[in-house]
């Protein structure tokens, strides 16, 4: 048996999955309807919406199987999320990766498997819509299109979960999404003996931009800040808009030097964009930084409060000097 390797974006993938706040939630008709449809369309005994957590695959919807999770190490879906296309095993007994898998040699005696990866934020593949048969079978191009169509419906339902975590203007995490994702990232850092840095940003002169140039200009500034953060911070950093003109970033495994480097890059990027666009204003921000040493035990809410205080102290010092 070949256990599935971890995808290259595993940390981001887990952050996105946990931010959905869907793991271990109860059954929902909107998902069950789609797995019933999949079982009927393909005439298979088992259809699942499977979500891949760190060490398990958990089934948000499960038709034809008597358990709600199995180990990730024996999962077919763990292999399916490694690629972009539908993952098909016509006969597991003839495939060296799965022939001695306990899900093949024992209950539910999988022979045929087809799983379509489910993508949500930033293309992260959080799981699959999969169909399973206890007999070998083929899987043609029309079958593949039908499974993709059903998977797209599942993705729409997952996106509804995600909408509650996302700022609609900037399309990055809101406060709720940030607290959920950063809490999980902090816990992972603690488990690995790593620290991190939390950065709080508050825009300078934002009210004046709104007053002089209109709210459309203000909205454009907020969108540029969010996009700039995606360019200037790392893909593993968790960043969000947590208030009207307040942004925050949790940087796992970093220190204040690296955090200041990221905000300096953001400042340069913003100035370059505004010069290139010929805008009549320049947007800037004040920043507060809090280092979190490994093992110090602080929670993300406490770090956020501390970084917020540091940011306002910086803003006040600028005004006094000014």
Automatic annotation (TrEMBL):
InterPro entries assigned to the protein according to its UniProt record, in alphabetical order: GAF, GAF-like_dom_sf, GGDEF_dom, Nucleotide_cyclase, Rev_trsase/Diguanyl_cyclase
Domain GGDEF: 194-322
Entries under Pfam families matching the protein: GAF, GGDEF
Domain of life: Bacteria
UniProt xrefs under PANTHER family: GAF DOMAIN-CONTAINING PROTEIN (PTHR43102:SF2), SLR1143 PROTEIN (PTHR43102)
Protein name: GGDEF domain-containing protein
UniProt organism field: Sandarakinorhabdus cyanobacteriorum
